[in-house]
Amino acid sequence: EKRYQDNLKSVKQSLVSAIESRDHVAFAKIIETQIHVTTCSGRKIIQKVFMKACHAGDINIVRFLLRKGADVNEASSDDITPLMAAVLSNSFDTVEFLLECRATVKTQIKPTQDSVLHMALKRGFRHSNVLGSEKWDPKFFIDTKIIKLLIDNGALVNQKCADGYLPLSLAASSNRDAVITHLIKKGADVNGVDSKYGMTPLMYAAIAGNVYIVRQLL
Question: Taking the model in full, what pTM does it have?
C-alpha cells in the first residue's frame, strides 16, 4: 500500500513538473502509460492536474484532460473551480474554452465566498480596511476581455462579494472604466449600496478621483 501511494505521489509530481515546463509530450505520455483513468485514484489525479493546468492557463493540457474525463465544474477542496483557476491565470483562451465546455459562471456561493467575477475584479487589490485607488496594483489586473466574457456568460452583476462590495464598486475603485461600461450595459445598479460601508459606486469613483467614471455613474 505504501509503495502504491508513493508511486501515485511520484506520478503526480511528474505531471505537475510537465505542466510547469509546458512539456505536453511528456505530460501525455505519463497520462497514457501510468494513469488508469477509470479507477478512483486515476480520476482524482486527472482532476487535480486539471486544476493545475487551469491555474497555468495551459489550454492544450486543459483540452487533453477534459477528453480524459476531467470535470469542468468540480471545485477543489478550497472551493476554487476550474474556471476560477483559469481566470486567475489571465489566459483569455483558456477561460473562453472552459465556458464553451459549459463551465458554470453562476455558481452557488457561501456568504464567505467570492464568485468568479468578484475574484477577477479583486485581482491586484492590496487588502486594507477601506477601498481606494491607491490600494490597487494594475500589473496584477485580470484582462478586461476576460471580465467582459464572464459578464456576457451570465455572471451576476449585482451580487456582493464576501467583503460586501458590489462589482461596480470594485471596478470604480480600481479605475476600470471599460468594465464599468459593460457592467452598466448588462444591468448593474449604479445606485446600489455596499453592505460593508454603505457606499455607492459613485462614492468609490470620487475617492479614486476618476472624473470620467464619476460621469459614467451620474
Answer: 0.90
